[in-house]
Amino acid sequence: MKVAVVGATGLVGTVMLKVLAERNFPVHELIPVATKRSVGREIHFKGKSYKVVSLTEAIAKKPDVALFSAGGGTSLEWAPKVAEAGTVVIDNSSAWRMDPEKKLVVPEINADVLNSTDKIIANPNCSTIQMVMALAPLHRKYKIKRIVVSTYQSVTGTGAKALQQLEDEVSGHIAEMVYNFPIHKNVIPHCDVFTENGYTKEEMKLANETRKILRDESIGVTATTVRVPVKGGHSEAINVEFENEFNIDDIKDIIFKSPGLILYDDPQKNIYPMPLFAEGKDDVFVGRVRRDESQPKTLNLWVVADNLRKGAATNAVQIAEYLLQKKLIDNRK
Known about the structure:
Number of helices: 10
Number of strands: 14
Distance between the termini: 10 Å
CATH topology of the largest domain: Dihydrodipicolinate Reductase, domain 2
Structural class: alpha/beta
CATH class of the largest domain: Alpha Beta
Strand content: 15-25%
Radius of gyration: 20 Å
CATH superfamily of the largest domain: Dihydrodipicolinate Reductase, domain 2
Number of domains: 2
């Protein structure tokens, strides 16, 4: 397998390399790709050194699969060119997610939509992934009517410069301002840019991507996304109304038995998910499971995951693993 990682020197790209190694994905030749200023730089992967190349050079090497995490503009311009060379592209940007011709995939939920004709596959938004991971098994049994979600999102969701802003502010250094305001000792109700309807793009991603992944356009979703001074993961307070009545013990049993989910829920013993403990892990943690006593058939959940791993890198690698398992990647080129 020839595997290209586009954006290999960035936050998510670095984690992609780590996850590929940890999961023993069969990388026989790594093709690290980054911006012009990084071309020629060495990347170390599983005891070997590889030189960073340009996208043009990467295409010439004919990778079997390319994991993209280099921004929407790069994906829009280059993913079709890479795919034309016979490479399967798994893209972590928002460029292709809502394209009706492209699949938006969380492997535990809807990998069955993939087939051999899919050459550009979209990786969902980090906040969407952890929310649908928790809600998809419940939707299958109880059918979701409406979701109200508030997020508490790590600065790493913005990128390396945002993390540097937080670290500089914590240490008392003059920070390069990525956000409009200080993030240390602050929360900013502003993730991505605002749209005409008063919601941010991040909030609209949670609504639109959730419906696409769950294959149900009838679900109502409203979101408020907030940036918090946290490094290692996103947290979400989710209020979900079902069409069918539920039992709390059954809800917990479904979560407990669902692949990729960890039920971490014993408030009397101070056991509940936090980004401090989710950082570096691939699972999605669910806790504070309780009935909404203000209206019927409604549930509250607290969901936490590492946004760089399951929220980005791990999900992309899992898609590649599924394609390989189902023989949907042709590495006989």
